[in-house]
Amino acid sequence: MNNLSAREKGFMYVITLLIIVVLAYFFGIRTLNKKYDEYKVELQTLQERKAYLDQLRENNASMATEIEVLKASCSDIELSFIDNLETECLEQYVLKTFETAGCPFLTSVSSTDIGMASVSYPDGTNCPDSVVCMQIAVTYSGTDGYTVTQYNRNPDFTPGSKTPVAETIESLSEQMGQGEYAKRKGYDEFLTALKKINAENPSCIKVSGIVAEEVNGIMTLTATIDFYGTNLKNRISVDESHAPYTYWCGDTNVDTKGGFIGFPYVCDNENSLWYGVVNMNFDPSAPKPFAAYWATALFQQQLSDASGDIKTLIGFEAEENAEPTPAPAA
Fold this sequence. Notes:
This protein is of the alpha+beta class. It has helices spanning 6-79, 87-100, 165-173, 187-200, 293-305, 310-313, and strands at 106-114, 130-141, 205-215, 218-231. It has a 4-stranded antiparallel sheet, covered by helices on one side.
């Protein structure tokens, strides 16, 4: 290197510098440029991804709002039906409504499950959710415009009454066909009760049938009322209503020490509300599952010989001055 001239040394320096520049370009600047292009592409990709996620976030927020709106709509539909159909609550509500309207003389009440069509999916499977319907049928009696009425021991003709039975009967017998007993009641009161029931919840309570007929001077009135509810697998709403047909609103803590179910020929239980009352509504020819066939026939013959006086036939002895009377209308 020392033998080289100054010119040659300068040339070598230039060559060395060029080599360094070329190497720096190939291994430095060119690599950095390539990385820069890659980073630009990655940046573009990330910006597009960010824009997509931002749009997705906006869509999710909008969808969440729509979901809440749909849930509210579903809840409104669910709550338009009765959450839980309890037969005793429905009957108690219907009977109380008629009694309050002035139509108390119930002849019969019954309940029936009405079959509703199931919903099928396109694949042929059945939907787990369904609409249910409970029908309450009631029959009431109007008055005849003459006879003295009785409802729930009012007036009281039992031995435990405050006024002697004979005195009550004598007083009321003079009022037959007069005053309030001269009015035929029941029809207008029956319609009033039905209108109230029909207006209670039009979306799930429907009066589906009304029948009125005249029998022996008495108007017999029958109505069927349908209550609609749902069986939902994944219910959204919570029914917090306190409608009178959704829970028990009748009497509680009723004293049943004198018996509550069943009514013998003549009630001799002093603790019973039916004490001293004669059951005149039974059918003497009705079968007696507990009795021998000949005993049933003998009972009918003996009752006929006793002119239908059941208390004499069975040897019932009431308290002194007590006069057992026919059972009051239901």
